[in-house]
Write a structure and sequence with these properties.
6 helices; single chain; two-stranded antiparallel sheet; elongated; alpha+beta; transmembrane; 7 strands; PMP-22/EMP/MP20-like
């Protein structure tokens, strides 16, 4: 009988590597896509779509739509936004390392030629890396969730640069200015996008991959 953990069985290798690959795809898609959140600011009818690396805004002027996407808006975002970017990137990197190392370990397994041949491999290190990735990914998406709950958004005041804040009052205070017409200040309407959902799916998949690799490294 071949000695070693459950990972010595082909089905466990397939499950482990497939889950890690799916996890990597989910996390990369979440990190690089441009729909973490969709905001609508009703004061001047602005739609803002947040990606971690690019933010797009659409301003309606009657029947005319002014569309523009800018990386600078994301690069100059406040600390909480940079924290999300950093932890999501770190999560992708750790998962990539774990996946590559797991592939290397399994690829280097000797060909089993007889029943009594001894061979073993442990995915304990990839499991630990996936646990670390689950934690960093959770920090990333949770930070975004908390900031959204606190109404942190990007505002576009007239004749002034785009400004981050949690209300028009904060924006005017930051810019030491007030609108000439003093209109009603409406709250920002915020809706989570598909990138945010992919981020949470990536965290759940990372956690599942950690459990699978840990179990597969155990004894039969």
């Amino acid at each position: 009988m071949v000695q070693g953990g459950l990972i010595m069985e082909p089905k466990w290798r397939i499950i482990s590597l497939s889950l890690m690959a799916v996890t990597l795809v989910l996390l990369v898609a979440a990190t690089m896509s441009t729909n973490w959140r969709e905001d609508h600011e009703g004061r001047i009818d602005v739609f803002i779509t947040h990606g971690l690396w690019r933010i797009c805004r659409d301003i309606k002027f009657g029947a005319t739509l002014d569309h523009k996407c800018m990386a600078s808006l994301a690069n100059n975002a406040p600390d909480w936004f940079q924290t999300v970017r950093a932890f999501m990137l770190l999560t992708c990197l750790v998962v990539l390392i774990a996946f590559a190392y797991a592939v290397k370990l399994i690829y280097q397994l000797p060909v089993i030629k007889h029943r009594n041949q001894k061979a073993s491999v442990s995915l304990a290190l990839p499991a630990i890396l996936m646990f670390v990735a689950a934690v960093t990914g959770l920090i990333g998406v949770t930070t975004f969730s908390v900031a959204t709950h606190m109404d942190q958004g990007l505002y576009f005041p007239e004749s002034l640069p785009p400004t981050w804040g949690n209300s028009w009052a904060m924006v005017w205070a930051k810019r030491n200015s007030l609108p000439s017409d003093r209109p009603e200040e409406k709250a920002m309407e915020m809706t989570y996008g598909y990138s945010y959902a992919l981020g949470w799916l990536g965290v759940l998949s990372t956690t599942a991959s950690f459990v699978v690799n840990l179990v597969a490294s155990g004894k039969q």
